[in-house]
Design a protein that fits this description.
325 residues; alpha/beta; Rossmann fold; 7-stranded mixed sheet; 38% helix
Protein backbone atom coordinates (compact mmCIF):
# COMPACT_ATOMS: atom_id res chain seq x y z
CA UNK A 1 0.00 0.00 0.00
CA UNK A 2 1.12 3.56 -0.59
CA UNK A 3 -0.54 6.97 -0.07
CA UNK A 4 -1.11 8.97 -3.25
CA UNK A 5 -3.25 11.91 -4.31
CA UNK A 6 -6.48 11.38 -6.19
CA UNK A 7 -5.08 13.05 -9.32
CA UNK A 8 -2.10 10.67 -9.19
CA UNK A 9 -4.46 7.70 -8.82
CA UNK A 10 -6.22 8.77 -12.01
CA UNK A 11 -2.88 9.25 -13.73
CA UNK A 12 -1.72 5.76 -12.68
CA UNK A 13 -4.92 4.21 -14.03
CA UNK A 14 -4.52 6.00 -17.36
CA UNK A 15 -0.84 5.10 -17.62
CA UNK A 16 -1.44 1.43 -16.83
CA UNK A 17 -4.23 1.12 -19.38
CA UNK A 18 -2.26 2.95 -22.10
CA UNK A 19 0.74 0.71 -21.47
CA UNK A 20 -1.41 -2.42 -21.62
CA UNK A 21 -3.46 -1.52 -24.70
CA UNK A 22 -2.16 0.57 -27.60
CA UNK A 23 -5.74 1.40 -28.66
CA UNK A 24 -6.14 3.62 -25.56
CA UNK A 25 -5.33 7.28 -26.10
CA UNK A 26 -6.05 10.58 -24.36
CA UNK A 27 -7.25 13.80 -25.94
CA UNK A 28 -8.40 17.17 -24.71
CA UNK A 29 -7.30 20.72 -24.08
CA UNK A 30 -3.80 20.96 -22.57
CA UNK A 31 -3.61 17.25 -21.74
CA UNK A 32 -0.21 16.88 -23.40
CA UNK A 33 2.71 19.20 -22.73
CA UNK A 34 0.91 21.08 -19.97
CA UNK A 35 -0.12 17.82 -18.29
CA UNK A 36 -3.81 18.55 -17.82
CA UNK A 37 -5.47 21.30 -15.84
CA UNK A 38 -5.19 19.17 -12.66
CA UNK A 39 -2.06 17.19 -13.66
CA UNK A 40 -3.88 13.93 -14.33
CA UNK A 41 -1.94 13.47 -17.58
CA UNK A 42 1.37 14.97 -16.43
CA UNK A 43 4.35 13.67 -18.47
CA UNK A 44 2.32 11.02 -20.27
CA UNK A 45 3.17 12.67 -23.61
CA UNK A 46 6.85 11.98 -22.92
CA UNK A 47 6.16 8.25 -22.60
CA UNK A 48 3.50 7.85 -25.29
CA UNK A 49 4.07 10.71 -27.73
CA UNK A 50 1.92 13.53 -29.01
CA UNK A 51 -0.46 11.31 -30.98
CA UNK A 52 -1.60 9.15 -28.05
CA UNK A 53 -1.71 12.17 -25.71
CA UNK A 54 -3.29 14.61 -28.08
CA UNK A 55 -3.63 18.33 -27.39
CA UNK A 56 -6.80 19.58 -29.08
CA UNK A 57 -8.06 23.01 -30.12
CA UNK A 58 -10.62 24.74 -27.93
CA UNK A 59 -13.46 23.09 -29.84
CA UNK A 60 -15.31 20.61 -27.65
CA UNK A 61 -17.90 19.59 -30.24
CA UNK A 62 -15.17 18.84 -32.78
CA UNK A 63 -12.84 16.76 -30.64
CA UNK A 64 -15.74 14.93 -29.00
CA UNK A 65 -17.00 13.97 -32.44
CA UNK A 66 -13.50 12.85 -33.37
CA UNK A 67 -13.28 10.71 -30.23
CA UNK A 68 -16.62 9.04 -30.98
CA UNK A 69 -15.48 8.31 -34.53
CA UNK A 70 -12.22 6.87 -33.19
CA UNK A 71 -14.18 4.64 -30.79
CA UNK A 72 -16.34 3.40 -33.68
CA UNK A 73 -13.20 2.29 -35.54
CA UNK A 74 -11.79 0.28 -32.63
CA UNK A 75 -9.82 2.75 -30.52
CA UNK A 76 -10.49 3.54 -26.86
CA UNK A 77 -10.43 7.31 -26.40
CA UNK A 78 -10.25 9.00 -23.00
CA UNK A 79 -11.51 12.56 -23.35
CA UNK A 80 -10.56 15.04 -20.64
CA UNK A 81 -12.83 18.00 -20.22
CA UNK A 82 -10.70 20.82 -18.78
CA UNK A 83 -13.87 21.62 -16.87
CA UNK A 84 -16.92 19.40 -17.30
CA UNK A 85 -19.03 22.51 -17.83
CA UNK A 86 -17.34 22.99 -21.20
CA UNK A 87 -18.72 19.66 -22.40
CA UNK A 88 -22.13 21.25 -22.76
CA UNK A 89 -20.67 22.47 -26.05
CA UNK A 90 -20.45 18.80 -27.08
CA UNK A 91 -23.87 17.80 -25.74
CA UNK A 92 -25.14 16.91 -29.20
CA UNK A 93 -22.22 14.58 -29.87
CA UNK A 94 -22.52 12.91 -26.44
CA UNK A 95 -26.29 12.43 -26.58
CA UNK A 96 -27.10 11.87 -30.25
CA UNK A 97 -23.90 10.03 -31.18
CA UNK A 98 -22.13 8.41 -28.21
CA UNK A 99 -25.29 7.34 -26.42
CA UNK A 100 -27.38 6.33 -29.42
CA UNK A 101 -25.13 4.95 -32.18
CA UNK A 102 -24.81 1.44 -30.72
CA UNK A 103 -28.62 1.25 -30.87
CA UNK A 104 -29.42 3.19 -34.05
CA UNK A 105 -26.77 1.17 -35.93
CA UNK A 106 -28.50 -2.05 -34.94
CA UNK A 107 -25.51 -3.05 -32.83
CA UNK A 108 -22.98 -2.61 -35.64
CA UNK A 109 -20.98 -0.08 -33.65
CA UNK A 110 -19.82 0.07 -30.08
CA UNK A 111 -18.50 3.20 -28.41
CA UNK A 112 -15.76 2.37 -25.82
CA UNK A 113 -15.34 5.97 -24.74
CA UNK A 114 -14.50 7.62 -21.40
CA UNK A 115 -15.33 11.27 -20.84
CA UNK A 116 -13.72 12.49 -17.62
CA UNK A 117 -12.78 15.70 -15.88
CA UNK A 118 -13.39 18.10 -12.98
CA UNK A 119 -16.78 19.44 -12.02
CA UNK A 120 -18.81 20.50 -9.01
CA UNK A 121 -18.77 23.62 -6.87
CA UNK A 122 -15.18 24.65 -6.19
CA UNK A 123 -13.97 27.72 -4.38
CA UNK A 124 -15.25 30.79 -6.16
CA UNK A 125 -15.06 29.44 -9.68
CA UNK A 126 -18.21 31.28 -10.70
CA UNK A 127 -21.47 29.98 -12.11
CA UNK A 128 -20.22 28.68 -15.48
CA UNK A 129 -17.37 26.70 -13.86
CA UNK A 130 -19.47 25.28 -11.01
CA UNK A 131 -21.87 23.13 -13.01
CA UNK A 132 -23.03 19.73 -11.83
CA UNK A 133 -23.81 17.95 -15.06
CA UNK A 134 -24.86 14.57 -13.70
CA UNK A 135 -28.55 15.50 -13.97
CA UNK A 136 -28.03 16.77 -17.54
CA UNK A 137 -26.57 13.45 -18.69
CA UNK A 138 -28.74 11.18 -16.56
CA UNK A 139 -31.62 11.25 -19.03
CA UNK A 140 -29.50 10.18 -22.03
CA UNK A 141 -30.03 6.52 -22.97
CA UNK A 142 -26.88 4.48 -23.54
CA UNK A 143 -24.55 6.24 -21.13
CA UNK A 144 -23.00 4.97 -17.92
CA UNK A 145 -22.26 7.62 -15.26
CA UNK A 146 -19.94 7.27 -12.28
CA UNK A 147 -18.64 9.74 -9.69
CA UNK A 148 -15.39 8.89 -7.91
CA UNK A 149 -14.86 10.08 -4.35
CA UNK A 150 -11.56 8.61 -3.07
CA UNK A 151 -8.15 7.93 -4.63
CA UNK A 152 -8.82 4.22 -4.20
CA UNK A 153 -12.13 4.13 -6.04
CA UNK A 154 -10.93 6.71 -8.59
CA UNK A 155 -8.20 4.39 -9.85
CA UNK A 156 -10.27 1.21 -9.85
CA UNK A 157 -13.24 2.89 -11.51
CA UNK A 158 -11.20 4.56 -14.24
CA UNK A 159 -9.50 1.29 -15.17
CA UNK A 160 -12.91 -0.38 -15.39
CA UNK A 161 -14.31 2.53 -17.42
CA UNK A 162 -11.48 2.42 -19.97
CA UNK A 163 -12.05 -1.31 -20.51
CA UNK A 164 -15.83 -0.98 -20.76
CA UNK A 165 -17.36 -1.15 -24.24
CA UNK A 166 -19.92 1.57 -23.52
CA UNK A 167 -19.58 5.36 -23.25
CA UNK A 168 -18.85 6.30 -19.62
CA UNK A 169 -19.16 9.79 -18.14
CA UNK A 170 -16.60 9.89 -15.31
CA UNK A 171 -17.13 12.72 -12.82
CA UNK A 172 -14.28 13.98 -10.63
CA UNK A 173 -14.85 16.74 -8.09
CA UNK A 174 -12.61 19.75 -8.43
CA UNK A 175 -12.02 19.90 -4.66
CA UNK A 176 -11.07 16.24 -4.22
CA UNK A 177 -7.93 16.04 -6.39
CA UNK A 178 -5.62 16.62 -3.42
CA UNK A 179 -7.18 13.91 -1.25
CA UNK A 180 -4.69 11.22 -0.23
CA UNK A 181 -5.41 7.54 0.30
CA UNK A 182 -3.69 4.17 0.47
CA UNK A 183 -3.61 2.44 -2.90
CA UNK A 184 -2.71 -1.25 -3.35
CA UNK A 185 0.38 -2.00 -5.37
CA UNK A 186 -1.42 -4.81 -7.20
CA UNK A 187 -3.86 -4.20 -10.04
CA UNK A 188 -7.51 -3.89 -9.06
CA UNK A 189 -10.83 -2.90 -10.58
CA UNK A 190 -14.07 -1.50 -9.16
CA UNK A 191 -17.39 -2.25 -10.91
CA UNK A 192 -19.15 0.65 -12.59
CA UNK A 193 -22.61 -0.32 -11.33
CA UNK A 194 -22.15 -0.79 -7.57
CA UNK A 195 -22.53 1.56 -4.61
CA UNK A 196 -20.09 1.51 -1.68
CA UNK A 197 -21.19 0.85 1.88
CA UNK A 198 -19.10 3.48 3.68
CA UNK A 199 -20.43 2.93 7.20
CA UNK A 200 -22.77 0.31 8.67
CA UNK A 201 -25.60 1.54 10.86
CA UNK A 202 -29.12 0.78 12.01
CA UNK A 203 -31.01 4.06 12.50
CA UNK A 204 -31.08 5.76 9.11
CA UNK A 205 -29.70 5.30 5.59
CA UNK A 206 -27.81 8.33 4.25
CA UNK A 207 -27.21 8.13 0.50
CA UNK A 208 -24.67 10.48 -1.06
CA UNK A 209 -21.87 10.69 -3.64
CA UNK A 210 -18.76 12.64 -4.66
CA UNK A 211 -17.67 15.50 -2.37
CA UNK A 212 -20.81 15.29 -0.22
CA UNK A 213 -19.48 11.98 1.11
CA UNK A 214 -17.13 14.03 3.29
CA UNK A 215 -19.81 16.44 4.48
CA UNK A 216 -21.87 13.42 5.47
CA UNK A 217 -18.91 11.87 7.32
CA UNK A 218 -18.42 15.12 9.27
CA UNK A 219 -22.09 15.17 10.19
CA UNK A 220 -22.07 11.51 11.21
CA UNK A 221 -19.17 12.14 13.61
CA UNK A 222 -21.47 14.56 15.43
CA UNK A 223 -24.51 12.30 15.21
CA UNK A 224 -22.66 9.33 16.68
CA UNK A 225 -21.68 11.46 19.68
CA UNK A 226 -25.39 12.19 20.12
CA UNK A 227 -26.26 8.49 20.15
CA UNK A 228 -27.38 7.99 16.55
CA UNK A 229 -26.13 5.12 14.38
CA UNK A 230 -26.43 6.13 10.67
CA UNK A 231 -25.56 3.96 7.69
CA UNK A 232 -23.76 5.70 4.80
CA UNK A 233 -23.92 4.66 1.15
CA UNK A 234 -21.77 6.32 -1.53
CA UNK A 235 -23.69 5.80 -4.78
CA UNK A 236 -20.58 5.96 -7.05
CA UNK A 237 -22.72 4.65 -9.92
CA UNK A 238 -25.20 7.36 -10.87
CA UNK A 239 -26.42 5.49 -13.94
CA UNK A 240 -27.40 2.74 -13.50
CA UNK A 241 -28.33 3.36 -9.87
CA UNK A 242 -27.48 0.50 -7.53
CA UNK A 243 -30.96 0.51 -6.04
CA UNK A 244 -30.40 -2.96 -4.52
CA UNK A 245 -27.76 -1.61 -2.11
CA UNK A 246 -30.11 1.16 -1.02
CA UNK A 247 -32.97 -1.26 -0.44
CA UNK A 248 -30.75 -3.69 1.49
CA UNK A 249 -29.93 -0.82 3.82
CA UNK A 250 -33.53 0.38 4.07
CA UNK A 251 -34.69 -3.03 5.23
CA UNK A 252 -32.61 -2.37 8.37
CA UNK A 253 -33.11 1.35 8.92
CA UNK A 254 -36.53 2.20 7.36
CA UNK A 255 -35.46 5.86 7.07
CA UNK A 256 -33.80 7.54 4.07
CA UNK A 257 -31.88 10.81 3.72
CA UNK A 258 -30.23 11.75 0.42
CA UNK A 259 -27.45 14.35 0.33
CA UNK A 260 -26.22 15.69 -2.99
CA UNK A 261 -24.44 18.69 -4.50
CA UNK A 262 -26.66 18.42 -7.56
CA UNK A 263 -29.54 20.87 -7.94
CA UNK A 264 -32.79 19.85 -6.30
CA UNK A 265 -35.00 19.91 -9.40
CA UNK A 266 -34.42 16.84 -11.55
CA UNK A 267 -31.33 15.78 -9.62
CA UNK A 268 -29.97 12.35 -8.75
CA UNK A 269 -31.88 12.42 -5.44
CA UNK A 270 -35.13 12.89 -7.36
CA UNK A 271 -34.49 9.66 -9.26
CA UNK A 272 -33.60 7.74 -6.09
CA UNK A 273 -36.79 8.95 -4.43
CA UNK A 274 -38.88 7.99 -7.45
CA UNK A 275 -37.49 4.45 -7.57
CA UNK A 276 -37.88 3.90 -3.83
CA UNK A 277 -41.42 5.31 -3.74
CA UNK A 278 -42.47 3.37 -6.85
CA UNK A 279 -41.25 -0.03 -5.71
CA UNK A 280 -40.31 -0.05 -2.01
CA UNK A 281 -42.62 2.45 -0.33
CA UNK A 282 -43.64 -0.06 2.36
CA UNK A 283 -40.08 -0.10 3.73
CA UNK A 284 -40.33 3.54 4.81
CA UNK A 285 -41.34 4.54 8.34
CA UNK A 286 -41.10 8.26 7.49
CA UNK A 287 -40.99 10.50 4.40
CA UNK A 288 -37.72 10.64 2.47
CA UNK A 289 -35.73 13.83 2.94
CA UNK A 290 -33.36 15.16 0.28
CA UNK A 291 -30.77 17.84 0.83
CA UNK A 292 -29.70 19.37 -2.48
CA UNK A 293 -28.10 22.55 -3.79
CA UNK A 294 -30.36 25.48 -4.49
CA UNK A 295 -31.77 25.87 -7.99
CA UNK A 296 -29.74 28.97 -8.80
CA UNK A 297 -26.49 29.67 -10.67
CA UNK A 298 -23.63 29.31 -8.16
CA UNK A 299 -22.59 32.76 -6.89
CA UNK A 300 -18.97 33.89 -7.13
CA UNK A 301 -19.09 35.45 -3.64
CA UNK A 302 -17.58 32.92 -1.20
CA UNK A 303 -20.23 33.23 1.51
CA UNK A 304 -23.10 33.08 -0.96
CA UNK A 305 -21.48 30.12 -2.72
CA UNK A 306 -21.24 28.23 0.57
CA UNK A 307 -24.90 28.99 1.29
CA UNK A 308 -26.01 27.28 -1.92
CA UNK A 309 -24.36 23.94 -1.00
CA UNK A 310 -25.46 21.58 1.78
CA UNK A 311 -23.27 21.81 4.91
CA UNK A 312 -22.71 19.22 7.69
CA UNK A 313 -24.89 21.17 10.15
CA UNK A 314 -27.90 20.82 7.83
CA UNK A 315 -27.32 17.06 7.60
CA UNK A 316 -27.24 16.73 11.40
CA UNK A 317 -30.47 18.70 11.72
CA UNK A 318 -32.17 16.65 8.99
CA UNK A 319 -31.33 13.36 10.72
CA UNK A 320 -32.56 14.67 14.07
CA UNK A 321 -35.78 15.86 12.46
CA UNK A 322 -36.36 12.65 10.52
CA UNK A 323 -35.81 10.35 13.49
CA UNK A 324 -38.09 12.42 15.70
CA UNK A 325 -41.13 11.99 13.44
Amino acid sequence: MGKIFLFDALREATDEEMERDTSVFVLGEDVGHYGGSYKVTKDLHIKYGDIRVLDTPIAENSFMGMAIGAAMTGLRPVVEGMNMSFLLLAFNQISNNAGMLPYTSGGNFRIPLVIRGPGGVGKQLGAEHSQRLEAYFQAIPGLKIVACSTPYNAKGLLKSAIRDNNPVIFFEHVLLYNLQDDIPQHEYFIPLDKAELVRCGTDITIVTYSRMRYHVLQAVDILVQQGYNPEIIDLISLKPLDIDSIITSLTKTNHLLIVEECMRTGGIAAEVIAQVNDNYFDLLDSPIIRLSSQDIPTPYNGNLEKATVIQPKQIVEAVQRLLSL
